[in-house]
Amino acid sequence: MALPHAILVALMDCPSSGYDLAKRFDGSVGFFWDASHQQIYRELSKLEAAGHVTSEKIEQDTRPNKKLYSVTASGKALLIEWMITPSAISPVKDDLLVKLFGGHLLPPESLLIELRQHRKQHQLRLTEYQTLEDRFFPDAEALSREATYQYLTLRNGIQFEQGWLRWCDEAIATVQALKPEAD
Question: Which of helix, strand or coil describes residue 137?
C-alpha cells in the first residue's frame, strides 16, 4: 500500500482539510499506516495535480483559509483498482527481533529490560484499541456495513497486540529461565 491509497480511503469518508485529515490519521488509519503531517500534505498536492482529488478554498475570518479536499471520480477509480489487486504480506522489519536473534551477545538482563518495555508499549496500545472499541463499536451486531469493515480493522489491531503480549510473556519467561553459560 502507498500513502495515496490511505489518503483516498480516508477522504472517501468525508471531505477534509489537510489538517483535519492528518488529525483523523492520528486516530484511525495512522494505527496501521504511519505518515507525518508533512507527508500527508505532500501527497495531497500530488493527488490534486494528478486529478485524483480536488480542493475547495474555504475562507475563514478568525483563522487562516483552508483547502477542503474531496475524491474525484478518477481518484475513486484509482482506489478501487488498487483495492481489488491482491495484497502481499508485508515484510516484517522489527529492531527487537533482530536484537533478540543476536541475543547471545548480550547479558540476558539487557534483553529482559527491552522485552518488558515492549510489553508495556503493546499493553498501552491494546488499551487504546479497546477504548476505541468500547467508544465507537459498543454493539458489534448492529453495525452498518461501513462500520463493520472499520470494526474488523480495529479487531485486527486488538488481536495483533494480544499476540504481541503473549509472545512477550513467553520470551521473558524463556530468557529468565536460561542457565548461565560456563566460561
Answer: coil
Long-range Cβ contacts of 164-168 (<8 Å, 24+ apart): 164/118, 164/119, 164/122, 165/119, 165/122, 165/123, 165/126, 168/115, 168/116, 168/118, 168/119, 168/122
The interaxial angle of helices 3-13 and 73-84, nearest 10 deg, is 120
- Cα–Cα distance between 71 and 53 in angstroms, integer? 4
Residue 94, pLDDT score: 93
Identify any residues that bridge with 69 across adjacent strands, giving them in sequence order. Answer: 16, 55
pTM: 0.83
DSSP string, 124-135: HHHHHHHHHHHH
Helix pair 3-13, 18-27: axis angle to 10 deg:
100
Contact 5, 29 (CB under 8 A): no
Q: What stretches of the chain show up as alpha helix (H) in DSSP?
A: 3-13, 18-27, 37-49, 73-84, 95-101, 108-136, 145-177
- Annotate 46-80 with DSSP letters as a single string: HHHHTTSEEEEEE--SSS--EEEEEE-HHHHHHHH
Which portions of the chain are predicted below pLDDT 70?
1, 182-183
**CA–CA dist 149, 101 (Å, integer):** 36
